[in-house]
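Q: I have 456 residues here and want to know how they pack in 3D. Can you give me a structure?
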Amino acid sequence: MSGALTLLEARMAAIPEIPLAAGFSGGADSTALLLMLNRICRERGVPLTAVHVNHGLRGEASDGDELFARDLCAREKIPLLVYRADLKDRTDENSARKARYGFFRQAMAESGAKALVLAHHRDDQAETMLMHLFRGAGPEGLAGMRPDSVTDGIRILRPLLSIGRQELRDALTADGITWREDASNGDTRYTRNMIRARIMPEIERCFPGAAGHICTAAGLLAGQAGYLTEEAERFIARYAGRNWILREPLLKTNEALRAVILRHWWAKSFAEGLDERALSSTQTAALTAIAENGGTVNLPDGRTARACGQCLHITGRDAPDRTEIPFTGSDITLGGITLRVLPDAGGPGDGARTQSIPKELAEGCVLRLRRPGDRIRPFGAQGSRKLQDYLTDRRVDAPFRDRIPLLCKGNEVLLCAGIGAGNIPRYEDAGERITLLWQGEMPWTYKPEVTENGKK
């Protein structure tokens, strides 16, 4: 690699000294990136693997791209992994992207790479920000691509975001290096190509240097989005589980933060790092609205959000848990909640999280979730009741009612985790006793916070 690319290399974002894989299509951007990366990695003794995916969408031209990639990597002594995608007659960008990221993940596993390096540059960033703006994105979307992020479960580095497209091409030309041109990049039926070919040139004509200024704005928004993300993560750790998030503390947050919390909660629980499962701005607004006002809304992946008294819940697709665990006198766990068995603590317990019971009463009991026909004889009350009515009276959100561990004898409920006890003999009665303690996350027991003056 000679002078022009070496000068550009100084403007690249910092590259961590870990094994890397680089996406290499053969186009100008990825060619420049691979050559600069190769020099950096050789100098540092860091393993680098190039990854080329032949989507087969352009026939002989796609095969020509693959041949170019093989020749350049052989000449530069860069290990290369080549994959051929079978898109089954699908020609849309999303299908190609999904296949490409699947191969990237495979390549990283095969090569031992810890991060994937992509050649997105300043103009790509400006185009991305405009695309998100036209779709009504918030601060996170308008922040565009990050230099270091995780997408589809892959750590992605984008060190060229401060360098323009033409600068990369000029450097390659100056160094006498050729590349492959993808004719489909001129097809303005694709949104990005239309922005690149029609909108950005007009913007640059009216506002010279606009692409750089747009990227500066994206960087500022990225900092603000990062702060909101940190606040959202703290909130989620305190007030949310996979399927639920507490409404009362959520509605006390700033409105802008509220939307970020809900998007990150969904992404962490159900999107699994996949962009196609991320909430759109419309879905985020709908989710925010039902958190505030009640109701339901359909979400990606066949799931539904439902606002109840305590929480906003995500339902759908999860099969009911039919597990039944016999009580043997030792600690047992169901659904992440443990029923601990302790010596007699010298008191009856609070009936919700702790309860003293005769040892012989526990014999033959099982730990399980709710079933049709379950009844409870509330401690100290007359007669038995349907468990459904018992939970309703205690204002337990409906989606929680099938997740609460129960200690049962047949269809009679003796203990309901975190809520109450059934027909347990009084502590003063004779007989050997044990204390049972529920431990774990039980959001159905949440009580609003109370300040010193007694108000919420």
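Q: Anything worth noting?
A: The radius of gyration is 29 Å. The first strand starts at residue 20 and ends at 23.
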